[in-house]
Specification:
260 residues, alpha/beta, Rossmann fold, 7-stranded parallel sheet, globular, binds nicotinamide-adenine-dinucleotide
C-alpha cells in the first residue's frame, strides 16, 4: 500500500514536532514546516528520529502569514511526497496584552498564523482529498477556542474562529471520507508556554517552580501539563477508521480546565 502523506504546519518544536513523529511512527510520509531555515530545523535531534521510521520526511521553510508561501508549500509537498492526505494545522503564536495596548501588527500576525493560514491550507488540500474520498483535517485550536482569558484577545479570537471554521468545513464534507476536527489543549509545556512562565518569574519575582505551579493551578485542575505526546496520539486516533464519524468536534484535552 502506498504510504499516506501528512503535512504538519509549525512542526519544528513542541506539539507539531510530536505529532509529526507519531505520524511517521505510524507509517506516514511527513512534511514538516516552520519559520526556521532548513539547516536549523534538520539539526534538531528529533528530525533524525523521524527519519528512522523508514517513511519519507521533508522540511519546508514557509511563513504561513503569506498565502503565496502556503501555495509554495503545497507545490513542494506535491513534488516531493504527493498530495496531502492528513493536514494538521498546528502553527500558532501568542501575545499577551490588554486590548487597548495590543500592538496592531501582532493582532494581524496572530490572526494570519492561527486562523487564516488554516483557511488557505484547507482550500488547497481539500480538492484532492475529495477526489480520493479520504482525508483528515485536524486543527490544533486550544481551550481558548472555547473559553476566554483576559489579555489574550487576538489568540482567543483566532482560536474561537478556528473552532467555527472546523465545524463549517466538517459540515461541507460530512457525506465524504474527509473528516475535519479541532483539538483544544490546555497548558502544554512548550516554548509558547515557557515564555509565559518566564514572564511570571520576571514580572512577579517568583521562583520558576512557584510560577509554574501558579500557572497550572489557576486553570488546570490536574495541576499537570498535557504532554505533546498525548496530543499526538489523539491526532493518530483521529486518523484511524474508528474516528470515521467524529466530525466537527472540538476535543478538549485539558486536565479538567473546561469542566469548571
Ligand atoms: P511552539 O512555539 O513550540 O511551536 C510553534 C510552531 O509554529 C513552531 O514550529 C514555529 O516555527 C511555527 N510558526 C510560528 N509562526 C509561524 C509562521 N508564521 N509560519 C510558519 N510556522 C510558524 O508552540 P506549541 O505550544 O507547540 O503550539 C502549537 C500549537 O498548539 C499552536 O497553534 C498553539 O496555539 C497550540 N496550543 C498550545 C498550547 C500550549 O500550552 N503550548 C495550548 C493550546 C494550544
Amino acid at each position: 500500500m502506498v504510504a499516506r502523506t501528512a503535512l504538519v504546519t509549525g512542526s519544528t518544536s513542541g506539539i507539531g514536532l510530536a505529532i509529526a513523529l507519531d505520524l511517521a511512527r505510524n507509517g506516514l510520509n511527513v512534511l514538516l514546516n516552520g519559520l526556521e531555515p532548513p539547516e536549523l530545523a534538520i539539526a534538531n535531534p528529533t528530525y533524525s528520529e523521524l527519519s528512522a521510521h523508514g517513511t519519507k520526511v521533508r522540511y519546508y521553510q514557509a511563513d504561513l502569514r503569506n498565502p503565496s508561501n502556503i501555495q509554495d508549500l503545497f507545490h513542494f509537498c506535491n513534488a516531493e511526497l504527493g498530495p496531502v492526505d492528513v493536514l494538521v494545522n498546528n502553527a500558532g503564536i501568542q501575545h499577551i496584552a490588554a486590548v487597548e495596548e495590543f500592538p496592531v501588527e501582532l493582532w494581524d500576525s496572530i490572526l494570519a498564523t492561527n486562523l487564516t493560514a488554516a483557511f488557505h491550507t484547507t482550500r488547497l488540500a481539500l480538492p484532492t482529498m475529495r477526489s480520493r474520498n479520504w482525508g483528515r483535517i485536524i486543527n490544533i485550536a486550544s481551550v481558548h477556542g472555547l473559553v476566554a482569558s483576559p489579555r489574550k484577545s487576538a489568540y482567543v479570537a483566532a482560536k474561537h474562529g478556528l473552532v467555527g471554521f472546523t465545524k463549517s468545513v466538517a459540515l461541507e464534507t460530512a457525506t465524504t471520507g474527509v473528516t475535519v476536527n479541532a483539538i483544544c489543549p490546555g497548558w502544554v509545556l512548550t516554548p509558547l508556554v515557557q515564555k509565559q512562565i518566564d514572564a511570571r518569574v520576571s514580572n512577579d519575582n517568583l521562583s520558576y517552580e512557584l510560577a509554574t505551579q501558579q500557572l497550572l493551578s489557576e486553570k488546570q485542575p490536574s495541576e499537570q501539563f498535557v504532554t505533546p505526546q498525548q496530543i499526538a496520539e489523539l491526532v493518530t486516533f483521529l486518523c484511524s477508521p474508528s474516528a470515521n464519524n467524529i466530525r466537527g468536534s472540538a476535543w478538549n484535552i485539558d486536565g479538567g480546565w473546561l469542566a469548571q
